[in-house]
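To illustrate the input format used throughout this study, we show a single complete record. The first block contains the structure-token representation of the backbone; no residue identities are included at this stage. The design step must infer an amino acid for every position from geometry alone.
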């Protein structure tokens, strides 16, 4: 078989030749998680990292199942004009980024499609308006903190396929300030193994957004979804009050719920008389907060696993007029929206690119009570 160009940024192990496990593939899409999608000659779906729709590639099968295979890129026979040289020397080895080989506009296009696909495939919502993904102001250099690992004197990020460490000298996703912290850390690493977070000096400890510019876009999208506001905003999974404090001007009162005691202390430190923050699981407080109230808007920003069944049942029972759901996982977002669909109409979903170059997607869904 004639070989095309190799992709020098992919892991060296990708290029081992196993003739019985190689096949030529036409790439037709990109799945959530970053892998390109194509079909083998036997009809099975193949998932291949670091390829772009429209490319024709030789791939090596690494894991085979009845209906799909995982594969690694061996070489390109046809190259997409939207392929770019990665900014990072360990891209394809480090597990942090999935899309540095794509131009940024293409990353946004596929993130929009991935949200729409999740809503249709997992939520049964094929006619929902999914707006184009809003870009980050900075596609690189946006992170205000990075977590690095130390093991037996080695400092780095985790390998994309294991917990082995990939040694680094800098990270293109980190801000200049964070990379200065990283350089200092590398010159004098701690003797104790573990995970260490390097932050810009102004960045607070505890949950906070890692991309300042995109975070303000996210806040503006949430504000738009809440419209003119109202009497009470219940901010579930409120953290240190990122949204709540930005929305005080359009609500008479804000109630936040958060499991992290440290985040609640931070929220209370700057609270006005129109703010109340409750420490504990959302399941423990949401019913009492919603009971007997009218004109309530509910803001949800759960972790990646989405909403628990008790939270879904409380929402269905007390039916706040407006529900705005901020999600970092299109799959659990689709699942939860389906569970709420009997009571609510989904008006639109707005993705925001909080984490350029990675497979992560943030999205805001607006629901209105029927």
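Output of the design step:
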């Amino acid at each position: 078989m004639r070989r095309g160009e190799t992709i020098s940024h992919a892991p060296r192990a990708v290029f081992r030749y196993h003739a019985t496990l190689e096949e030529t593939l036409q790439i037709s899409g990109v799945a959530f998680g970053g892998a390109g999608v194509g079909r083998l000659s036997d009809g099975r779906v193949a998932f291949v990292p670091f390829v772009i729709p429209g490319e024709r590639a030789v791939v090596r099968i690494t894991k085979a199942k009845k209906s799909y295979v995982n594969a690694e890129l061996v070489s390109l026979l046809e190259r997409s004009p939207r392929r770019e040289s990665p900014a990072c020397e360990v891209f394809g080895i480090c597990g942090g980024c999935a899309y540095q080989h794509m131009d940024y506009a293409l990353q946004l296009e596929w993130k929009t499609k991935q949200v729409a696909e999740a809503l249709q495939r997992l939520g049964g919502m094929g006619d929902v308006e999914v707006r184009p993904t809003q870009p980050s102001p900075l596609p690189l250099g946006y992170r205000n903190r990075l977590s690095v690992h130390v093991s037996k004197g080695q400092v780095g990020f985790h390998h994309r396929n294991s917990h082995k460490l990939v040694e680094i000298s800098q990270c293109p996703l980190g801000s200049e300030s964070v990379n200065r912290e990283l350089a200092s850390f590398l010159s004098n690493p701690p003797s104790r193994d573990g995970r260490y977070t390097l932050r810009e000096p102004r960045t607070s400890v505890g949950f906070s957004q890692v991309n300042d510019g995109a975070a303000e876009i996210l806040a503006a999208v949430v504000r738009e979804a809440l419209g003119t506001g109202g009497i009470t905003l219940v901010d579930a999974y409120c953290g240190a009050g990122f949204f709540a404090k930005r929305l005080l001007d359009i609500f008479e009162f804000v109630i936040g719920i958060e499991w992290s005691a440290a985040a609640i202390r931070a929220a209370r430190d700057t609270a006005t008389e129109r703010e109340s923050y409750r420490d504990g699981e959302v399941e423990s407080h949401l019913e009492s907060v919603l009971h007997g109230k009218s004109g309530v808007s509910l803001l949800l920003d759960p972790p990646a696993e989405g909403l628990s069944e008790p939270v879904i049942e409380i929402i269905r029972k007390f039916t706040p007029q407006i529900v705005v759901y901020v999600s970092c996982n299109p799959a659990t977002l689709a699942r939860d929206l389906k569970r709420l669909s009997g009571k609510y109409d989904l008006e639109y979903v707005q993705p925001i690119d909080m984490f350029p170059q990675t497979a992560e997607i943030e999205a805001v869904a607006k629901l209105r009570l029927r």
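Structural context for interpreting the output: The domain at 12-78 is CATH 2.40.50.140 (OB fold (Dihydrolipoamide Acetyltransferase, E2P)). The CA atoms of residues 10 and 92 lie 5 Å apart.
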